[in-house]
Write a structure and sequence with these properties.
About 55% of the residues lie in helices and about 20% in strands. With about 270 residues, the protein is α+β, with helices and mostly antiparallel strands. It folds into three domains: about 1-95, Helix Hairpins (Orthogonal Bundle), CATH 1.10.287; about 125-170, SH3 type barrels, CATH 2.30.30; about 175-270, Alpha-Beta Plaits, CATH 3.30.70.100. Strand 7 and strand 8 (about 220-230) form a beta hairpin.
């Protein structure tokens, strides 16, 4: 027993072990930290290079993130190898644990697969306004596991890729033109052709397809007009708001609005018709 203690507590042996393992630990830590820093720089360079050759922002961000994750795994394996872990044994352990890891991270794997499908099929891109997974916002990024949306009130939403890809996606920016649909009520005795000319006077409305102003319904006290006008997608919100204001002012100016004594009756008529 004394010989065993004297052997293993030999200061020279303990010092050699401490120096060896501390050196390996510091080397592994340096490999991981420096490697991760270099990978971030490489990922940024890759994104810049892909944009220079014409790859769009959505694909370049996704591919650079994927490149970062793959190379990070290589850096981690190198750090373990520096610690003295045999790679053959390490890979064997990973293979044996693969099924358990797959089951534990099935949601993450589903999100990863859905992210690839979103980038491949391109139902939307960065900068588009979409409805997906029950939320609405502008796409900030499509990551490996989630889509980042920013709402009109400046909230940031992280939505799992699987929820986005599995549901219905409404892309408001997919086409260059959008149609404004309005229902306008005018007085029963109003001049309908004049009302149509007032509504169609907005300069930002596209001439083709031809804007439509048609009688939609003739009720007891009001006539409803259906307005269908095509505008640039980028100007949709502003044109719709301005068009409503222009119509209100014009109807009042030319005496085409619903008379005050008819408003309560028309409200009752519309409520009863629901």
């Amino acid at each position: 027993m004394q010989a065993f203690i004297s052997t293993w507590l030999d200061p020279r042996l303990v010092g050699a072990v401490v120096l060896t393992w501390s050196g390996r630990l510091l080397a592994a830590l340096a490999i991981f930290l420096v490697g991760r820093m270099l990978l971030k720089m490489l990922s940024g360079r890759a994104t810049y290079a892909m944009r220079r050759v014409g790859v769009d922002d959505t694909s370049s961000r996704f591919l650079s993130n994927l490149l970062y994750m793959v190379l990070l795994i290589f850096v981690v394996l190198t750090a373990f190898w520096t610690l003295g872990v045999q790679m053959t044994s390490f890979v064997t352990i990973l293979g044996a644990a693969g099924l358990a890891i797959g089951l534990a991270f099935k949601d993450s794997l589903s999100n990863f697969a859905s992210g690839i499908m979103l980038v491949f099929f391109r139902p939307f891109k960065v900068g588009d306004q979409i409805d997906a997974a029950g939320v609405n916002g502008v796409v900030e990024s499509i990551g490996i596991f989630n889509v980042v949306l920013k709402t009109p009130d400046n909230r940031v939403l992280n939505v799992p890729n699987s929820l986005v890809y599995a549901g219905t996606i409404t892309n408001y920016n997919a086409e260059s033109m959008r149609r404004i649909d309005l229902t306008i009520a005018i007085g029963y005795d109003a001049d309908i052709p004049q009302a149509k000319s007032v509504i169609a006077a907005e300069a930002r409305i596209a001439k083709s397809p031809t804007p439509e102003v048609a009688v939609q319904d003739v009720l007891t006290t009001v006539v409803t007009l259906a307005v269908r006008a095509w505008v640039s997608t980028a100007e949709y919100g502003n044109v719709r708001s301005d068009l409503l204001e222009r119509i209100k002012r014009a109807l009042d100016k030319y005496g085409l609005a619903i008379p005050a004594e008819q408003r309560s009756l028309s409200a009752l008529t519309l409520t009863a018709g629901k």
